[in-house]
Amino acid sequence: MTRLTAAALLAPALAALGACGAGDGGAEGAAGVGDPYFPEAGNGGYDVGHYGLTLAYDPGRPRLTGTAVITARATRELTAFDLDLVGLTVGEVSVDGRAARWRRAGQELTVRPARPLARGAVFRTTVAYAGVPRTLTDPDGSEEGWLRTPDGAVALGEPTGSATWFPGSHHPSDKAAYDIEVTVPKGHQAVSNGELTSERTAGDRTVLTWRAREPVAPYVVTVAVGRFTVTRSTVTGLRDRPGLPSYVAVVPSEVPAARPVLARIPAVLRWEEGLFGPYPFSSTGAVVARRGLVGYALETQNRPVFPGAPDTTTLVHELAHQWYGDSVTPRTWRDMWLNEGFATYAEWLWAEEHGGDSAQETFDALYRTDADAGLWAFPPARPSDAAHISDSPVYERGAMVLHRVRRAVGDTRFRAILRGWATAHRHGNADTADFTRYVERAAPGTDFGAVWADWLYGEGKPKGG
Ligand code: TRP
Ligand code: ZN
Questions:
Q1: Average pLDDT for residues 146-164, to the nearest whole number?
Q2: Strands 305-307, 284-289: parallel, antiparallel or unpaired by DSSP?
Q3: Which part of the chain is CATH 1.10.390.10?
Q4: Nearest CA to ligand 1 atom 11
Q5: Strand order, beta sheet including 101-105
Q6: What are the backbone dihedrals phi and psi of residue 14, each rounded to the nearest 5 degrees, phi first?
Q7: Residue whose CA is at the smallest distance from ligand 1 atom 1
């Protein structure tokens, strides 16, 4: 479901062909989609529509066994194409039911189908795999991937960790629907995205199936295996999603601290729906893993993952990402501020409307920081490198960009922009140029020249806060 234009896809595809190695006439899909920070993430030449993952995890060993059935459409003729997969052992690979040749190099699993795939063809790749999945250390030093816990594991995938537990096209530009089946020891749960469609126990094993219909970017796909206290309920009072199902899973030790905060999910969603427009997904909830699992929360689709009971501000942030990040997804990792700037600004607005500082006060306090502070290290729309895509220029200075837009257009138009942006790119991908164009059209006659030049793209601390 990528929205990359043909030209955008082709340029990196051609550039990567040489690097791909086994050239046999130029009909090989590219090893990446040309992301400026993660060049090997995703793959060129096809567009995934659906992943069917059948997984079994035994926390004691701790071994994962999987079969991935990947339905994709070729965007060009393909004699071979790549999947991303980090670690694990591949058993068999087939395309449309016929055994395919394959080989691995780094994170690329190159598949050569028995017959070339025609441009436009919808094809189904099946990969059987197994092993002990690994944890990745990001360029910024944080951990992601398949994270083991005392009684299970939590899979977190921003920006690339999803490739540690299933083969696919692991880039935010290739969103797809998912069906995920997980077999776990009886007494354990497996929580994922979308809705739980069945749960059955036979002998000493429980099989759970999860279905996510709306497009999901790989970095917000999750599976959490372990012993959780599960609360299922219905969120009332949403204008656009009456009776939205909620599935909340909390590690028992965090239940007392998490309960009062997670009880605010309906109130936060109602407030965000009022500001951002219709909630984009068919269910909500949360996963609260043990404290210290990782140093961050993640906006996994439908139900964010928190390392320990969150505070209300973090809940507001991760739920705001359901609109900004999960539904409107960055086209590349360079556009991260479109996630984090909006989610951070949601925190500011929540404070402003719930008895805390106004957004202007928050802005002013940040603006007072010295010119050599980390906040001004690089422009929000141009992180210096992959190690810095989660730094404060992306979060706080990104939110400051939005505040400058608000000041330029006034509150009424700004609200229309928040909502209109989420609606215009709902379930799609967007980049910074789409954003500036959208804002300019929404406020004809307003001059955004200095906002873009100084706040969004400018090096250093802008003059005149
Ligand atoms: N997106 C997460 C949040 O702010 C934070 C995060 C986790 C992150 N892993 C990351 C940001 C990797 C950038 C890159 O809610
Ligand atoms: Zn965030």
A1: 97
A2: parallel
A3: 336-456
A4: 390
A5: 81-84, 108-112, 101-105
A6: -70, -40
A7: 298
Which residues pair with residue 288 across a beta bridge?
A: 250, 306
Joined together, the tokens standing for residue 174 give 């290739």
pLDDT of residue 138: 94
Q: Which residues line the pocket of ligand 1, CB cutoff 6 A?
A: 138, 142, 158-159, 296-299, 317-318, 340, 389-390
CB 336 within 8 A of CB 321: no
Place of tokens 């992180």: 383
Contact 299, 343 (CB under 8 A): yes
CATH 1.10.390.10 fits 336-456, yes or no: yes
Q: 13: closest CA among 65, 73, 56, 77?
A: 77
CATH number of 2-311: 2.60.40.1730
The SS3 assignment for 294 reads: coil
Backbone angles phi, psi at 431, to 5 degrees: -125, 180
| Long-range contacts of 106-110, Cβ-Cβ distance < 8 Å, separation of 24 or more | 106/40, 107/40, 107/163, 108/20, 108/31, 108/40, 108/43, 108/82, 108/83, 108/84, 109/82, 109/83, 109/84, 109/85, 109/167, 110/20, 110/22, 110/28, 110/80, 110/81, 110/82
Given phi > 0 = left and psi -120 to 50 = alpha, else beta, which region is 111? beta
Backbone angles phi and psi of 135, in degrees to 5: -100, 145
pLDDT for 25-41, tens place per residue?
Answer: 468 999 999 999 999 99
Residue pLDDT, tens place only, 168-194? 999 999 999 999 999 999 999 999 999
Structural element, H or E, at residue 54: strand 46-58
Mean pLDDT, residues 298-308: 98
The candidate with the shortest Cα–Cα distance to 8, out of 37, 36, 38, 50, is 36
CATH 2.60.40.1730 in the chain, residue ranges: 2-311
- Pocket test of ligand 1: the residue of 136, 137, 158, 329 to mutate, having most ligand atoms within 8 Å of its CB, is 158
